[in-house]
């Protein structure tokens, strides 16, 4: 939804958002603001999701203050890895097939996040979190980080974020192992089977 912050108590970190049509007024907490490091102000234009808490009250989630972008450190990390992976494959004589594989899986994972976000908004069938984590684990995590930043999907849910980062570090560890002699032998035996 689109709206505007109509009340804000900066000392306490909460306020209220009114929808553009004025029919809905929802509570917003600073932890729901996705613009990292930004403190909202009255009259800021925002987009947000609405969720009902266990007491039946409506709260704003995934609040994006329009015109304000936080620096995408996680996206920078993902793309830095792709550059470093390309360089390390060249330097350590690794299997060049890994780079297009990472790129394909990243793009596919990004679109799976986009599809899941659209499904959440439409109330239709969702992609399971375990599927999104598995795609990240096998190499699509740079796309997952980009989707979290651009689409603001699964970017605030703590259990999901923690498991995603565990999958990322396992994947990086696996990639580094594939540059070792035993890892190269494994790749060659897998490719030799085809």
UniProtKB/TrEMBL annotation:
Would you say which domain of life the source belongs to?
Bacteria
Q: What is this protein called?
A: Membrane protein
Q: Which organism is it from?
A: Vibrio caribbeanicus
């Amino acid at each position: 939804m689109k709206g505007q912050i109509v009340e804000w108590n900066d000392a306490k970190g909460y306020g209220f958002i009114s929808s553009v049509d004025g029919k809905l007024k929802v509570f917003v907490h600073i932890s729901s603001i996705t613009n990292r490091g930004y403190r909202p102000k009255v009259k800021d234009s925002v987009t947000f999701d609405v969720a009902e808490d266990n007491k039946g009250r409506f709260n704003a989630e995934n609040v994006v203050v329009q015109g304000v972008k936080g620096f995408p450190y996680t996206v920078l990390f993902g793309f830095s890895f792709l550059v470093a992976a390309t360089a390390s494959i060249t330097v350590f004589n690794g299997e060049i097939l890994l780079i297009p594989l990472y790129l394909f899986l990243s793009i596919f994972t990004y679109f799976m996040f986009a599809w899941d976000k659209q499904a959440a908004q439409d109330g239709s069938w969702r992609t399971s979190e375990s599927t999104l984590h598995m795609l990240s684990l096998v190499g699509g995590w740079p796309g997952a980080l980009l989707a979290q930043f651009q689409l603001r999907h699964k970017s605030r849910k703590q259990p999901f974020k923690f498991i995603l980062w565990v999958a990322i570090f396992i994947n990086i560890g696996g990639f580094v192992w594939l540059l070792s002699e035993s890892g190269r032998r494994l790749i060659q035996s897998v490719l030799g089977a085809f």
